[in-house]
Every structure is written in structure tokens, then in C-alpha cells.
Amino acid sequence: MLPAVITALMLLSFTHGENPAVQVILTNKGLQYGKHVGAGWIQDKLASVTFPDISGKIRISIFGNLDYTLTGVTITKCDFPEPSVEFYQDATGFKTSMSGLCVALTGGWMTHFGLIHCSGSFNLAVFSVDVTSVVELGRDADGHLSVTSVSCDAQVGDVDLQLYGGTSWIFQPVLGYFKGPIRDEIKGRICPNVEEIIVRLESHLQAMNVSFDVDHDLTLDLPLTGLPVINSSSLNLGLKGEFYSIKTHAEPPFEAQPFTVPKQPGYMLSVGLSEFTLNSASYGYYSAGLLQALINDSMIPPGSHIHLNTSSMGPFIPQLPDMFPGLLMNLQVYAREVPLFSFQPGAVKLGLLGAVKAFAIQANGTQTPLFKLNVDSAFSGKVWTADGKLKGSMAMNNLTLTLASSEVGTFKTDAIGGLARMASTVLVAKLNEKLGKGVDLPRMKHAELVNTVLAVEEGFIAISSDAQVLQTDGHFN
Ligand SMILES: *[C@@H]1O[C@H](CO)[C@@H](O)[C@H](O)[C@H]1NC(C)=O
Ligand SMILES: *[C@@H]1O[C@H](CO)[C@@H](O)[C@H](O)[C@H]1NC(C)=O
Ligand SMILES: *[C@@H]1O[C@H](CO)[C@@H](O)[C@H](O)[C@H]1NC(C)=O
Ligand SMILES: *[C@@H]1O[C@H](CO)[C@@H](O)[C@H](O)[C@H]1NC(C)=O
Ligand SMILES: *[C@@H]1O[C@H](CO)[C@@H](O)[C@H](O)[C@H]1NC(C)=O
Ligand SMILES: *[C@@H]1O[C@H](CO)[C@@H](O)[C@H](O)[C@H]1NC(C)=O
């Protein structure tokens, strides 16, 4: 008990002050679906299960000790009642029970009784097997979900044994003696097997990555920030949900804010995604110096009547063609600050504080600075799901240009502002074309999301969905 308390306190102190930016909620509907799929899977597996040889010793009062071995045991028939599973608050886990399992087994038997060796085949029916298992969910120091067996209880109602062949007739009178020991043997094997499955599951969980590289620049950290929270109707996992630049791994100057995902018991699962997650990605790119671009004349469509050269800029900056006649120009575009997203009911907003530095390219290749413009823009967008895809649209709300510094004297920014607006409109239209096509919702190897709905709330996006297991090859492990 004491070690458990200390571990819990340590886990709490590790996570002090860190709010999860991603919350995953499994509802009872999701739990029941998972159980139903799992039960079907077990039923399929049972058909092909093979048992190791079972050996034992039976004391028969009049004869003394009888050694026996059962070999090649296979299941001939199995009545596998659908188990029940529920969220179990007492253990912060699940309670699974199954009652009334009946199995018919067949195989070979061998006995040593002193010098007498006998063998033959057998049929064994096992009735009314009840199993109850309670598992606890937790979190290890690295933020993996952990699962441990808290209790397991197995009962076997009755067994019926038939022996055939060899000298089985010898044993017919004492068959009753076998029943008890065989029942105990079976009963004694159930819980260690259940516990072994849980240990195997735990080692799978330990081997799972809690950090994923999403591209060459960003990695996503998804460890649990705290212990799983369970009540009678749901399981809530809080995940860190923070992107880092692979290059800098710098911590952003802002933190995840707490949020509560609205209850959606009609869906199997809900996911809450804080604006912090998106902003940490934005900061990751920014801190790695990736939010900048160099624009030169070769990138301007040849047909355009405006080009990146000093004469073409005459209508916007009258003195430029006189000071630097006939020179090509470069534009260095960059974010002055981290672009920040904010989620508001029904809308995603983005503030972009950018700057453009303009250079003239001298004949000898030297870049002469001309001026610097601050470009501040605000966008608002919508996101939704349709046809199994996440789609969006974006609009520019305003764009303000101010002259931050100039080596060519002052000039009015109105005209060049019009140009910038025009260029932005083209870019936004291109972006909307992509957003309108959408991206596929995350899909696992063996399951897909269906009936997905999405709502933008204050500070987070709430996604609720059902899942559907794909049974392409009849099994999935
Ligand atoms: C975990 O991550 C490492 C390195 O990022 C990768 O090599 C490994 O394949 C990943 N394991 C799984 C199970 O995804
Ligand atoms: C269970 O917890 C969720 C939050 O995780 C809450 O919305 C819900 O009301 C709780 N249900 C019960 C029955 O306490
Ligand atoms: C413009 O930039 C591209 C890519 O950075 C480069 O390939 C091209 O040569 C440049 N053009 C001029 C005219 O500098
Ligand atoms: C500058 O651009 C104009 C088009 O706006 C073009 O006619 C002219 O040839 C270009 N000058 C240079 C030096 O590239
Ligand atoms: C390149 O040319 C410019 C203008 O003619 C001149 O001011 C500058 O000193 C030159 N730079 C070099 C490295 O020759
Ligand atoms: C953009 O518009 C919003 C309201 O429409 C205003 O609050 C904000 O100051 C504007 N931003 C700029 C950079 O002009």
C-alpha cells in the first residue's frame, strides 16, 4: 500500500502545473464496442488454441498415487458467453466478468501407476466457468499508460470426463476421483493465464512511443500528463500534446490552459485538442527559423505585369527607379513573432505579425537594403468534417502595412498595401482550394473513425466520433 501511495505522490509532483493539451475520453459506448470486438476475437482465437500437456498426480485411497498426463488437448466446442465490462472507479480501471462459459475438450491420456502404463483418448466437458478480473490503469514515469492486474477470481462449476481406449475400463470405477483434481487444475490455471495476458498487454504499452516525429522539423510529445481519470461513465486520459522543433527543442513562452471537453455519451470517444498544441507547432517552426522565405523575381509568374525590379516598383515607390535604376530585387519575408492561433466558438483565428525586407541586387551581386515593411494580418477560419475528411476554409480579415525603416526615404504604403492585399487574396484562394479538399482523418491499421463531428470551442476543438473495426483479413493482432 505504502509504495503505491509514494508512487502516486511522485507522479503527481512530476506533473505539477502541466495541463494536458490533448484529452481523450472513452465513453461507455466505446468500451462496450471494444469489448464486443474483443469477445469476437477471442471466440475466433479459441478455435485454434492448443494447450500444453497437463500432468498431475491423483491420490486414490485404495491404489495410492496415479501419475497422469493429458496431451494434445484441443477445444471441440465452446459456449463463449459475451463477457461484461465496466469502468471500475474503485481501482481506476476496468472490471471484466464472464459467467457460464462451457468448453468441450478432447485429447489423449496417459497414466503411470507403478509399473502399469496405460493410454487412450478422452473427452472432457467443463461447465459453468466464471471469471472476474479487475485491472488498474496507471501511468509510468515516462508517461506510458500502464495496466496491472488487481484481482482475478475463477470458478469452475463442474467437469465431466470420459476415457476411451487402452485399459480405460480399469479406471471407469474410479473416474469420480479424477473430477475434483482436474477441476482444481483447470481453476488454478485460469487466473495465471489472465494475468499473463495483462502482463503481455503491459509490455506492449511500455514499448509504445510517446513521442513521434511528424516531419523533418517537428516532433509531437504525447505522454500522459497525469493518472487516468475514471468514473462510472467514462475514462479520461490527459496527454501532453506538445510539438517541439527537432532542432531547438525549445519550450514555448506560453502554457497549455485547462479545458473541459463537453460530455458526448452518444459517441464512443471524444478528443479535445487545445489551441496550445497548434501554437506549439507554430513556435517549433518559428524557433527553428523556418517561418521565413526569400522571394525573387523568378518566382513571379512570367505573365505578371509587375515584376520584382526597381523600375516595376516605380508606381509604388517613386524614388526607387531613380536611385537604383534597372536592378532586380529580393524580398526577405519572415514572421516577427510566433504566429498564434486562437480557438473561439465556431472559429479559428490566426494573427500573423510579419515583415518584409526589400533588397536591390547590384550588378556585382551585392544586396543593398532598401526598406523594411511590417505586415500585420489577421485571418479567421472554419474547420469541419465531411466525407471522412477534415476540411477548412480561411479568410483574411485585415492586413496593415507600416514602413518600419527605409534606406530610400519615406513613401506612402497605401499603394503597395493594395498590391500586398491582392497577392494575399491569391494565396488565400490557393490555400482554400487545398483546405476544401481536406485531409483524411487519422486512421489506424485496423480501425477507422466514423460519424465524426467537430466543434470549435473557447480554447479547444472538441471532436467526437465512433470507431469501426475493419475486418479485412478476419483477424487483427
Ligand atoms: C519508436 O520511435 C523510434 C524512434 O523514433 C522508432 O525507431 C521506433 O520504430 C518507434 N517504435 C514504434 C513501436 O513505433
Ligand atoms: C465522469 O467524468 C466526466 C468528465 O471526465 C464527467 O463529464 C461526467 O459527468 C462524469 N460522470 C459521472 C457519472 O460522474
Ligand atoms: C530565385 O530563387 C530560386 C530558389 O531559391 C533560385 O533557384 C533562383 O536562381 C533565384 N533566381 C534569381 C533570379 O536569383
Ligand atoms: C522589370 O519589370 C518589368 C515589368 O514590370 C519589365 O518590363 C522589365 O524588363 C524588368 N526589368 C528588369 C531589369 O528586369
Ligand atoms: C558592388 O557594387 C555596388 C554598387 O556599384 C558598390 O557600392 C559595392 O561596393 C560593390 N561591392 C563589391 C563587393 O564590389
Ligand atoms: C484587424 O481587425 C480587427 C477587428 O476586425 C482589429 O481588432 C485588429 O486591430 C485589426 N488588426 C490590424 C493589424 O489592423
3D structure, described in words:
The chain is an alpha+beta fold and 477 residues long. It folds into 2 domains: 3-14 and 27-208, Super Roll (Bactericidal permeability-increasing protein, domain 1); 211-464, Bactericidal permeability-increasing protein, domain 2, CATH 3.15.20.10. 23% of the residues lie in helices and 46% in strands. It is built from 7 helices and 22 strands. It has helices at residues 2-14, 28-46, 168-171, 175-207, 275-287, 320-323, 414-437, and strands at residues 22-27, 54-60, 64-79, 84-88, 93-113, 116-139, 145-164, 211-213, 218-221, 229-230, 234-239, 242-245, 269-274, 292-296, 328-335, 340-344, 347-361, 367-386, 389-406, 439-440, 447-457, 460-469. The strands form 4 sheets. Strands 14, 15, 16, 17, 18, 19 and 20 form a 7-stranded antiparallel β-sheet that branches. A 6-stranded antiparallel β-sheet has the order 10-11-1-13-22-21. Strands 2, 3, 4, 5, 6 and 7 form a 6-stranded antiparallel β-sheet that branches. A hairpin with a 2-residue loop joins strand 16 and strand 17 (347-361). The radius of gyration is 34 Å and the shape is elongated. It starts with a helix and ends in an 8-residue tail after the last strand. 22% of the residues are buried. The model is unreliable at 1-16 and 473-477 (pLDDT under 50). Bound molecules: 2-acetamido-2-deoxy-beta-D-glucopyranose (6 copies). Residues 362, 364, 366 line the site of one 2-acetamido-2-deoxy-beta-D-glucopyranose. Residues 296-298 line the site of one 2-acetamido-2-deoxy-beta-D-glucopyranose.
